[in-house]
Specification:
With 197 residues, the protein is α+β, with helices and mostly antiparallel strands. The protein folds into two domains: 63 residues, Arc Repressor Mutant, subunit A; 88 residues, Umud Fragment, subunit A (Ribbon). The protein has four helices and eleven strands; from the N terminus they run αααββββαβββββββ. A seven-stranded antiparallel β-sheet has the order 5-6-11-7-8-9-10, with no helix packed on it. Strands 1-2 form a two-stranded antiparallel ribbon. A two-stranded antiparallel ribbon has the order 3-4. The protein is elongated and about 70 Å long.
């Protein structure tokens, strides 16, 4: 279940409150903390967090919220970092929930072996996250099965005039290779990557 921004904001407030006070907040404290008036809305957010597995609610307790262990898949977003000209440093208090980005019934991970996609920032040993799909748009990075035997991660180019599919690496030491369409099966679309430290 994907949470809304308001539900995530509620969850992150609960996390910070419990870290600071060592007990759960009340609905009134949550409403004040996330800047709304309605406790009824807070209760709806809490029900969504229960449904998503982030929290449990204990019966007959005033401070009845329990965080589920392992439920947090978010890290703090601290602001922006320049990759060109330096920019002003502005602090942010926001979280990125990677479950919303990487998790899901159609997501899968593969570990990269080789250097054919290094100019896309995809390095040997990286874990690439993909979603299952048997179709792709021109120019997408795909998981391609060749001749039902070998898989590769490449950018795909369709050339209907010549009845060919070209798999394009992102490394000048590797050459694009073209195949008849029946030799290529798209198995997934690249979403992002995780690099182990």
């Amino acid at each position: 279940m994907t949470l809304t921004q308001s539900q995530l904001k509620t969850y992150h407030f609960i996390q910070r409150f419990m870290e600071k006070h060592q007990h759960a907040p009340t609905a009134a404290e949550i409403a004040e903390g996330i800047g709304i008036q309605s406790r009824g809305v807070v209760h709806r957010y809490l029900k969504a967090l229960v449904k998503s597995g982030h929290i449990r609610l204990l019966p007959n307790r005033h401070r009845n919220i329990v965080l589920n262990k392992g439920s947090s898949t978010s890290i703090p977003l601290k602001g922006y970092i320049a990759a060109g000209r330096p920019i002003e440093a502005i602090a942010q208090e926001e979280h990125i929930d990677f479950k919303d980005i990487f998790a899901g019934p159609e997501r899968f991970a593969l570990q990269v072996k080789g250097e054919s996609m290094i100019e896309e920032g995809i390095m040997d040993g990286d874990l690439v996250i993909c979603y299952r799909s048997d179709t792709a748009r021109n120019g997408q990075i795909v998981v391609a099965l060749i001749d039902k035997q070998e898989t590769t991660l490449k950018r795909i180019r369709f050339n209907p005039e010549k009845n060919l599919i070209t798999l394009i690496p992102a490394n000048p030491h590797f050459q694009p290779i073209s195949y008849e369409p029946e030799r290529i099966e798209v198995q997934g679309i690249y979403v992002g990557l995780v690099r182990k430290a």
